[in-house]
Protein 1
Amino acid sequence: MADSIKVRAQMQGSGAEVRVLINHPMETGVRKDEKGAVVPAHFIQTLRITHNGNPVLESLWGVGISQNPYLRLKLASAKPGDKIGVAWEDNLGKKDATEVVVQ
Amino acid sequence: MNKALWAGLMLAILGSLAACQTGKDSAGPSPAPLALEGSAAPVPWKRYVVEPLGVRWPQTDWKSFNNLVQTASPPVGALPKIDGPIAGNAENGKKLVLDRSRGGGCITCHILGNTGSQPGNPGPDLSMIGAQRTPEWLFAQIWEPRLTNPQSFMPPWGTHGVFSVEEVRDMVAFLMTLKTPAEFKSDKENPNKRPAPVETRPNLDPTENPAAFIADKGAAAFRAAGPKGQACIDCHRDPAQAFAVWGAQMPSYEPRLDKVLGVEEFVTRHARATTGGEFPMQSETNLALAIYLRALANGQPIRVDTRSPGATAALARGQALMDKKVGQLNFSCRDCHDPERGGNHWFRGQYVSGLPNLLGHFPTWRTARGEVWDIRKRFQWCNVSVRANELPPDAREYGDIELALTTMNAGRKLSVPGIRH
């Protein structure tokens, strides 16, 4: 179950446009809560995108990325029916992954 | 025609009408079970403190000013007695007219020559004011604008204690230096030319709107069994069909509570009475169910029922409340949102939407806040931002206003969850 990832992969011209929205707090570790206590850092560290199982993007993230990260990329070689995988893992060891088909 | 026969005929017609009425009532759906006791929001209501992206709600208690339930603001004030000519420190006055922490600063509503950046335009351009008015006149206008114009929506800065006599003198001294028209480097700087922002993000596209994750939680909550063993889905097998228009017909007047219920309060009271779920307003699950249910009616024209006497009365109350001046800054809803006043104008760099187009997308994602706001939280912020104590989200007054606003938006198509800055 990929509760935290929304992906859309659509043909645009000769390639596919992939859009990804991830539900994640991306806490920097400096924000304070109602009682003034520091909210512990909690952020995605790695994001992987695959095309038919082959890695096309592996990015290392940190606290500089804002809440609910959004990503848009073009895959020139993608064709309708291809599979696009998206997976993330955060600094607390939580992870999520999903796969969609290019429309 | 014979008089008796005529009367007989009338009776027969009335009789058949009455029969028809009852027939329709008994064939219609029974009213939804509702928990009528207790509050739908946490008691006592406590103001929000800090939001996910760090925005803090002010914590001041503005009990000495009006809010939507109480009347406490000082009456239109007389001017303080001032000995000698009005003079002051123009340098300090310049700081004050730009000071955001003092009710936003005068530049929120006025162009002030070439002072400051991104001025607003609900009020007149004051760039030449030093050549047009006397210091005494200016002092009076700033201290208590309602002495000159009883309908003024400029805050009564002196009467409401935002600025002291000294500070108003300083601002007068500064205004007296303004004698040259403003020159703008670009149209972006000029509030009369700056293009109005248009929200074009595709709010219903789940990869664009983070509220989509919350809608998913709503769909899951609809299927989760509550403390009494049943889930919503057990009584509503086909929600998409059953609630295809319901969300576009809310809020609605509820005679059992003599109050207008929005989707959110309905969810709280109906869940309490059916599944036993406890989803107070502003809780995550309440918002999630509200988005889920309302979105089922996306594309439907807004159509609220205001025909019953209770609803008619609520609508009238709501319309009157939208004219009530509240808070230290003394604004009514219409002062900011009526296009004849602040609506469709720039308040400094903030464009304020004009009536009626304020809803149809709630609950909505707030990009700048990193969370979903239902319509009641929006009302709460609009109260707090004028330094008025907000009401609990289930307040009857908010229901009345929601009904009045929604009525003005009749025919507009529902599009939920929205997305806004």
Protein 2
Amino acid sequence: MKEHFTMLTDPRFCLSNGVTQRFGMGPMPKTVRLNREGFAVDAAVKKKTLVYPYMHLATHPAPGKGDLFSPIYGTVTDITERSVFVDAVEPDEELKKLGESVEKIDLLAREERGEDLVPVLKGLGVNTKSLGQKCETLIVNCLNPDPGVTWAEPMLLSHTKTFALGMEMLRRLSPAKRIVLAIPSNMKFRHRDVDIARVPYHYPASVNALVIKSVTGREKPEGVGIVGIHNVWSLGRVALTGYPLVETVITIGSLIHSGNYIVRDGSTIGELIDFANIELQPGDTVVRGGPLRGESLDKMDRSITKGASGLFIVESGTIPPMEGHSPCVACGSCSAICPARLRPDMLSRYAEFGLHDRCYDEYITSCLECGLCGYVCIARRPVLQYIRLAKEKLGLKLLKTAGVYAERVKQGE
Amino acid sequence: MKDATPTLLLSMSAPPYWHCGRTVFKRSIDQLIALLPAAAMAVVNWGLPALRVMCLAMAVCVAVEAICCWAMDRKSTIDDFTAVVAGLLYAFMLPAGAPWWIVVIGAVSAMLFGKMLFGGHGNNPLCTPLIGWAVLFISFPVHMDPNIVQTATSFIDPLARLKYFGVAEANAIPVLDLLLGHQINALGAGQVGALLLGGIYLLVRGQIRWQIVIGVLIGAGFPFAYLQMTDPAANASAVFHMCSGSILLCAFFMATEPCTAPAVSAGMLCYGLTCGLMMFVIRHFGSYSDGAPFAVLVTSLLSPYFDMIRPKPFGVK
Ligand code: SF4
Ligand code: SF4
């Protein structure tokens, strides 16, 4: 039995909020910072190069990782190991002509199916690793991934054309025999000839592994893959516009504000926060990603990149501060709340004292990285951070990169 | 030169960035609120001496914690108020007329051996207040016996009555008297009605686990009820037993201390049942008339074994 009192009645954990407002366009950025980690930048792109929207900037060696394109007219100001910086410029005639000469691609008219589609989509900036994964059944996770994020419902209910195109492309791309939409059980929704599974919609129900369990009734079943609705929507966006993907949908939220925007890849958080009319105070925390699993940012020139789910401002004083050294007081809240039935108190203690090996005996590989253990910790321990640290030290990949489940690596290898 | 826009200092931290708002401090406050009615009833029933014992115990506990933190060169932890809670609970186990030096010796041993030597709150294997109680109970049995210390009272000791005057006499004590704390007992443990109120408050606030409380109450109550059903002439009722001695105090406030109890539901239930059963065994067969505190101490030692009762983690076959 779950001890629900520990979650209290925080309404924010409901992942189905009845939000259906269509996404607004985010601001036209004055400067962008594109993530190029692992990418090989094109030879023609150097410092001071003039760029135009949809101009190809860099390629990733992995076939499932989409290429990098410029979202704006601008000039490259710097290229570092991790980022490409572009400052916006007013295009002159020549640059404008280049920008307008980008060819539109009619994806729907193309013949490719299955794996042949992968390079085409890569060339359009779409990540196909999870969309095209090999499996018998592919579940589309249509829940808002984190509490606070609200774009999943509008994607299904309001941007129907984009979503339908995304599903059409997904059917062409995916080797799966069956595609299932996992939608919140309270949602009225129909989609032509697609299976629908109604699943619980209270966080952590949106965590991929738990969605798979809700749909199939089994934990870690074979041959079942899962992809987020965000990816399907991106696919649909490309099919709709015919241009490479240079945008992503995020929720910008603070204590009182919440809205969904289509923002250009690489938009800096400073501009986005200004755009959303949120006033920052000293001591606030700015979070990229969901409020339970994301990362806090230190400077306003950090940027939103493809795949980020949101940008959240946590006002100082709204939660008890996390202090550096806070030993576990063995209150048991984390064990009571953990959806993976783990002992986060023991895991975090082992990690704290460097006994990472022992985390295996506490089943660290079963952790779903949902972050609830830290949410309920009365000592304000960074429990999830400790678990991620131990995973890192053990050579385990974090779920952000490894997918749905962590694999156990053999000890001594 | 100054920037056009002054730089804004953001705070960095680790996920999650939302929090349920519960902290150790708030839990201590909840516990103190829950203990307040019993403390008030203690003063009503026993007068200023009870207040004196409670204040002294709390003050000594806080002082010991502060000194230990200082000696260990650590940041002081007294601001989380756990020492105050431990001090008050410990005082609840003492007779109202306990001499001051007894209170001090017990409080110091409770904090030292029941908390600080293990590294502070949450690392103690045994319930902090009970350690102080046990040290005193074994070293100074005379000063700890409310029947000897508390002579100037019209109250009676229900357990002594049961032991020396028989069941009929014991059953003649009105339950309301027991609930209102009109009994010779430790100053807080006897305020049964007020403790019940406080315990329910903690349950509703989710600060203690119902599995443990229910386990203890069933584990102790069921055998007593069964005995009384089979032979009413020789056995007092379960309600009588619940309302005497320190069973309720232990069930709601001592056995539920999370760091000494298992962390998983099934384990907590087993732990509670075992603890309750031990209370019954010690009280019914043993030479101590109460037995509840010892039952909690012994069962806490078994917690690691109860912790082995746990569900399979996600996806583990
Ligand atoms: S992050 Fe891992 S350990 Fe913590 S509650 Fe979630 S599944 Fe459990
Ligand atoms: S919630 Fe925090 S303090 Fe409580 S047991 Fe877990 S890690 Fe320890």
